[in-house]
Description:
Elements: E1 7-8, E2 14-15, H1 21-28, H2 32-40, E3 48-50, E4 53-55, H3 58-72, H4 77-89, E5 114-116, H5 118-124, H6 131-140, E6 143-146, E7 149-152, H7 155-166, H8 171-200, H9 202-205, H10 216-255
Helix pairs in contact: 1-3, 3-6, 4-6, 6-8
Pfam families: MerR_1
Protein name: MerR family transcriptional regulator
Domain HTH merR-type: 18-86
Amino acid sequence: MAAQGEERTADGAAGPREYRAAELAEAAGITQRTLRFYRERRLLPPPRRQGRVAWYGEQHLARLRTISALLARGHTLGGIAQLIEAFAEGADAGRTAELLGLAEPSPWAEEERVRLTPQDLAAYFAGETDPELLASALRTGWIAVDGDDVVHLSRDLLDASSALVDEGIPLAALLAAGRELRAHADALADVFTELLRRHVLPELLAPGERRDPLGDEDVKRLTQALERLRPLAKQAVYAEVSLALDRRLRAELDRG
């Protein structure tokens, strides 16, 4: 029997899952015609050939899912091809800047951005920077492209994620966890934003009532309120996460 996470390959040996073209298209949620089109556009690496049969692996499925995700965000196939090529080469990321712009931070943004070359980014993650992983980081919102550089949107997050990879967590697993964490973080931010809206700055943040853009004085008041309250919100979240980890670890030890 194949080990967990493995399946029988075309020659019957235990190994990573392989797909015929029809199986790959079905797993990726596309038609075989679309798959052939992507192959003709060289958006996929060549399959493994066994006689007249083409066998595809998990890396092909990941690439197809990346393409679908980027198309859903409005990117063109030509731009996706440039992105894949640029990050596969580990250089010349500026060729995709017109597709993946970097928005200006808000006036109350706290996280420090880090500008890196693609090679610098690869060094942070021990070379785990193939095109699928980099596109996944783009989808997760951790990085953006600006000119010839890659910009990580948070130094703290960059340092923490790099250290976690050094501890043995694969970058792909970390990015998947990051997307889940982002959803929880957005929910937590909603909680504190609602407190601001109800009790601190109701005249500025009342939903559906304000139509004009914030003036300079409004931005100043909001910034000052966030400077006072953000550290307290972070302290509360940190304490709750710490307590939750204690509870989970205690439960795991009790089961053991």
